[in-house]
Write a structure and sequence with these properties.
Blueprint (H helix, E strand, L loop, with lengths): L1 H13 L5 E2 L2 E2 L2 H67 L8 E2 L23 E2 L17 E2 L130
Parallel strand pairs: 3-4, 4-5
Antiparallel strand pairs: 1-2
Length: about 280
């Protein structure tokens, strides 16, 4: 019995895995089949996962392509809009307000005033402005030969052209008229209290009874200004002192006086250097 057990043991050791001995199944073949089947299932599962991942990748690529198409479309629309903006800017610049020869009496507010209007760069030559234009912007506007007889309190006329304009009786209190062309303008009876006329050119203008109280005339040009005007019928030479502009509190500095001298050389004033006319 002992020898038979040893022989069986030796045969088992010498046989290949999955073999049989005298009708006994050693369990190897069945185990191999099971392992093979398991491996095939795992491979199939992995292949399915790969297929799923490839499908997801394809969907992602499709989404990315769609997003890129949308971005491209938006960029194209943005470019079109930017082009349109530039176009309108050009059109707006080419069609700056042209109110030449117009009577600017628009009822902008319920009280008839036009507060804070922007007419910068507009052509207002030969126009008539009779109402209230508080805090309005006329910078760089062409107002040559216009009649500005309204109220322009706190308004901006910087770099505007008022050559030969009539500002008689106009109210320019606290207005800014820096670098403004006022050559040969009729400023008689106008109110320029606290106005800034720094670097303004008033050469040849008429200043009869013009109120410059506390105005800033630094670097202004008053060459050839006079106190005669179309509204004066009396002999201004005989009534010289009656028609002088009001210059109380004026800031003089490097101002060219009516007779061509400099305020710095005249005791910081030009009040004694006006030219009369008939």
């Amino acid at each position: 019995m002992r020898k038979q057990q040893i022989l069986v043991l030796l045969l088992v050791i010498s046989l290949p895995v999955g073999g049989t001995i005298v009708g006994y199944e050693i369990g190897g073949a069945e185990g191999n089949d099971n392992n093979s089947e398991t491996s095939e299932n795992e491979i199939l599962e992995l292949e399915n996962q790969i297929t799923n991942l490839e499908s997801m990748l394809e969907q992602s690529n499709s989404s990315i392509s769609s997003f890129e198409s949308q971005v491209s479309s938006l960029e194209s629309q943005l470019t079109d809009q930017q082009t349109l903006v530039i176009k309108w800017q050009i059109i707006a610049e080419e069609n700056r307000a042209n109110l030449s020869g117009r009577n600017i009496m628009i009822d902008g507010n319920s009280d008839g005033s036009m507060t804070s209007i922007d007419l910068s760069g507009a052509d207002l030559s030969y126009s008539e402005m009779m109402f209230e234009y508080y805090y309005s912007n006329f910078s760089s506007a062409d107002m040559s030969y216009s009649k500005a007889w309204g109220e322009f309190i706190n308004s901006n006329f910087d770099n505007a052209n008022l050559n030969m304009a009539s500002l008689a009786v106009g109210d320019f209190t606290n207005a800014s008229l820096e670098h403004t062309n006022l050559t040969l303008a009729d400023m008689g009876l106008g109110d320029f209290t606290n106005a800034s006329l720094v670097n303004a050119d008033m050469s040849g203008a008429s200043l009869y009874l013009t109120n410059f109280t506390n105005a800033d005339l630094e670097n202004a040009n008053l060459l050839g200004v006079h106190i005669g005007g179309s509204e004066i019928t009396t002999n201004v030479v005989e009534n010289y002192s009656h028609w002088l502009p009001i210059m109380t509190g004026v800031h003089w500095k490097n101002t060219i006086c009516p007779d061509g001298t400099n305020s710095d050389d005249n005791g910081n004033t030009c009040i004694n250097n006006f030219v009369t006319s008939d």
